[in-house]
Amino acid sequence: MVPADDFAAAAERALIEGDTARAIDGYRQLITASPLQVEPRYGLASALGAAGDRAAASAALEEARTLHGLLMAGRLGADIPRLSTDGGYAVGIANQLYMGDLVATASVVFGRAITAGDASKLGLMTYAVSLQHQARAEEAIRVFRAALELYPSAQVHQFLLYPHFMVENGPARYAAEARAWAARWAPESGEPTFDHRPRAGRKLRIGYVAPTFAGSQVRQFITPILENHDPEAVEVTLYPAKIDTKSGWPAHFAITAIGHLPDEEAAALIRADRIDVLVDCWGHTAGSRLGMFAQRAAPVQVAWINFLQTTGLSRMDYVIHCDSMAVPGTAELFTETVISMGEIMIPYRPHDARAEPTPTPALASGRITFGSFNHPAKLSDATVAAWSRILKDRPGARLILKYRYFIDPVLQAVTRARFLAEGVAPARIEFEGHETGDAYLAAFSRIDLALDPSPCPGGTTSCDALANGVPVLTLAGADFYSRIGILCAQACGLPELVAETWDDYVARALALTEDAEALNRLRARVRPGFDAGPLRDEAGFTQRLEQTFTAMLDRALASPALLQAG
Question: Which of 121, 207, 327, 333 could pair with 278 as two cysteines, CB 3.0-4.6 Å apart?
């Protein structure tokens, strides 16, 4: 009798060699022999996908994920029969799993909660987010929409917006949903007027709005701006939700908490502060104050930094992009006027401690290591297919996927199954969880070439890689959002890291990793290029930004409908 492990290896080998019929038959025999073994079920899903039977592959993958998730929950102490009969209990277990970053396992238990009759707001919203985290964006959209029907609110509707970044025709679908949000939740009152004096002889008054500036993902981008504003030319006011006494911002800043104020009162307060240019740094993310912007809190209102898409608000005047994001059709997707700031849209300040540049690890290991530290939600089918082509044409190479959700064994198995369907052996995909400090920095020394996903490229992750000396290959996508990665490569003086098509992307990845010595010479250019490039020109960018804001205000001051004599 052939051992099960040998039989499984034979089925996997058949699949990798392209014999899908033999692989399907082998995996089905394994499932019959061991119904509670999850690996053959994932293998069957991969084989069916490779054979082109998408519906059967999807069903098989769901069976594998469900069985695996329930087994995981049981090993962690959950009462499995009770999950299907006690919705409140199931939601409680699912939330514990979710809080432990086991997002794929949690989604299985959330599904059981719904079957058991629990349709609570918390359960539905966290279920949808857990789906989103697994690159199951269309499913997440359906659950968010169901939650919106049951629990209509501006906040629930905002959660529905984000997964639209990751679906086919995402920018257009997102833009339509953002307009729908604005129409439903951000009604405009009468047009306020302002008595701002002409610019000559006074400072420009700039306000920034975000729930927090010190403890969020915007800090590495906003800090260079705030610290380089010219106090002789501008007055800066921050409007966080609450005061952070440990923020360390310049003493000449005014900081006013608005988290406790309704939108109308917050807008009135900002008008009383006579802010010239009010900048939203948050967009449609949890903690947003876009309803306040709909009240016209300042003569000029700008969307920037954390959100590059349209807010959907007719009273948001501008959104800031950069030159490399410009493609035909972008303007029609925005209620705002799109303004380019040139090579970059925002500078980036790396962490205080950075890894010392290291030789490309392939020189010592003898094999290429590709890596991506991006959120698993960004692993589109097109991305998996392209990365699989690279791995198949670079025998012996491995791919490291690093993010906190990759500690989930169910997400790991599903991800390996997606690559196996493209002909890549599961053992070539490695996972790492969240790390900080020296451990995080050391991770860059293990990567020869970072791979940027598409159509949702990396942002902070790409900047981190470049700042620590790792080249990042990116795709110049067809829409403004999928082209974000271009600025990172171009700002470092590395145009060879920008591919025009997926075929070009694969070809460049193979060419860049053909010769380890040549790759090492490229690597030696990354950190110096980053440090000398526009992403690190904090003072120069801030000066141009102040000039841009001044020009915006000058245009607003010329509008008699907006201003009254003062």
Answer: 207
